[in-house]
Amino acid sequence: MRQHQTSCRYRANIGARRIIFSREPDSALKPRHPWTILSVPISPYRETIHPASTLFMFYHPLPAKRSARRTLLCGLLCTASFASAAPSESNLQLPSWLSLSGTLQTRVEYLNQDFDSGQREDHALVERTTLRADLNFEHSGATLELADSRIFWVEDDTPVNSAMVNPLDILQGYVWVGDDQWQVKLGRFTQDLGSRRFMARNRYRNTINAFDGVNARWQLGEQDTVRAFYSLPVERRFDGDPRDNKMKSDRSHENQQFGGLMYETSRLPFDSQGEIYLLTLKERDSADLQTRNRELYSVGVRLLRNPQTSHWDYEFEALQQEGRSRLSSSATNTDSLDHSASFLHAELGYSFDAPWQPRLQAHYDYASGDRDPDDNENNGLDSLYGIPRSDFGPTGIYGLLARNNISSPAVRLELKPAGDWRLFMELRDAWLATAAAPSPRTGLAEAIPGGDKHLGSQLETVLRWQVIPSRLQLESGLTYFNASDALKDRGIDDKYYLYLQANLSF
Q1: Per the database record, which ranges form the Alginate export domain (predicted)?
Q2: What are the tens digits of pLDDT across the range 271-289?
Q3: Domain segments of the chain: what residues?
């Protein structure tokens, strides 16, 4: 086991000031308690110190494992200093055709029981940094965005993959032509499509989906839009053990193709909006990419009405997925099956004209699972490049519920206790859509004998605080999963997951 370091110094030059953090015995900054908050006023300008320009740093003498301490200190330092006094584009005196921006997301996660053995606690520190430059001319432009996603303070036997780690690489790099009525992008891009359930730019997850290809938009009048894209999904990569956060260039593959077409309209009755879309995914194995040989065609429709005070709102989305696929990407699995799966989301909400602006919602989510493992047909829904976060709770080292083989009603309450505070609570009951298929994310690696479909109940609470509007947001969440008797009989107990997160935009 590595020993704790006895002396360590961190230095940062911020404008006209030099800040030094030290663990040397004579340091005035050394805390007296292992969990101590250090507060240091910082500002890049001599003449003013913003009230928010104070660095709040949690200190704990953790072992120096994989530089976790050093990265945490640097991340929190950057967050505080940039959020309080990062110069605007006007301060930088940039030309009108150039804009620079970036984000920093830092999150600490804790899970009371790991998913493999169920015998120990689990934890992680994840950081994601993006830097973006946009060149905008009258009818053309270009964008370059870099992203760096890393993980620290994680156990050696914690499953870590490219959903958590993707060291420095190009996230977006494209040129565009167009105007207010149409636009075409060519290059590497990210995209939110519709509800984000089947194609999204990830927000909570530490790494982000990207695509190489062409992306187009046409505005048909003021209320109708057509979107189309054809792309090669980008494979996120790292070198060696992902815990080492070593870079390896991302790449796309010609034998994996993802495309789509969507029509959007806001001309529906009752202030409603609608979407109709087609998504296609075609892939085949190659020497450098093992796939499930999916050839999927997904047709969906979505109707919604946005929330308004003293009004009802709703959302309805349904999708049918047909084609062929394999059950796994293993090289030994060469059997292609007919694929037929379905998806449904329905919600109804009401926003009250009352203190804290409460909005109460009822939800139902359904995603099919494989009905019969011996019928040469795969009925498990493939969520493609979408996100589960908005419906099924946090991912990270938790990610217990997924949009596959699930039937789940929920009740959700949203509150605004103050102008800069948001409180979100949801109670969700989770059932298998079919007892003939497993639910691996819950730890249920095989179907439940006897047809028992109940997985358990999940209570999620999230609190967000806009510390500096449009600049710095703090977020905390607690998710508790009460496992059903069917899961407990198989050694899968209750779980709770806690996270603390800071989001900086500059």
Answers
A1: 97-494
A2: 999 999 999 999 998 888 8
A3: 1-86
Q: What is the pLDDT of residue 467?
A: 96
Residue 56 CA from chain centroid, whole number: 26
Q: 234 and 206 in contact (C-beta within 8 Å)?
A: no
**3-class SS letters over 379-424:** CCCCCCECCCHHHHCCCCCCCCCCCCCEEEEEEEEEEEEECCEEEE
Q: Using the 8-state DSSP alphabet, how is residue 200 labeled? A: -
Short-list 170, 174, 173, CA closest to 184? 174
> For 279-336, how does the pLDDT look when each residue is reduced to its tens digit (9 = 90+)?
999 999 888 888 999 999 999 999 999 999 999 999 999 999 999 998 888 777 788 8
Side chain identity, residue 214: V
**Terminal C-alpha separation, the chain:** 40
Phi, psi of 85 (to 5 degrees): -155, 35
Contact 238/248 with Cβ under 8 angstroms? yes
295 within 8 A of 279, measured Cβ to Cβ? no
- For residues 190 and 202, what is the distance between their CA atoms, to the nearest angstrom? 9
> pTM for this one?
0.83
What whole-number distance in Å separates Cα of residue 296 and Cα of residue 325?
A: 8
Helix (H, G, I), strand (E, B) or coil at 106: strand
Positions in the chain whose pLDDT score sits under 50: 1-69, 71-72
3-state DSSP percent of the chain in helix, strand and coil, to 5 = 10, 50, 40
Backbone angles phi, psi at 473, to 5 degrees: -125, 135
Distances (CA, A) of 503 to 85, 125, 329, 425, 466: 15, 14, 35, 21, 9
Which residues make Cβ contacts (< 8 Å) with residue 298, sequence separation at least 6? 198, 278, 279, 280, 281, 319, 320, 321, 382, 384
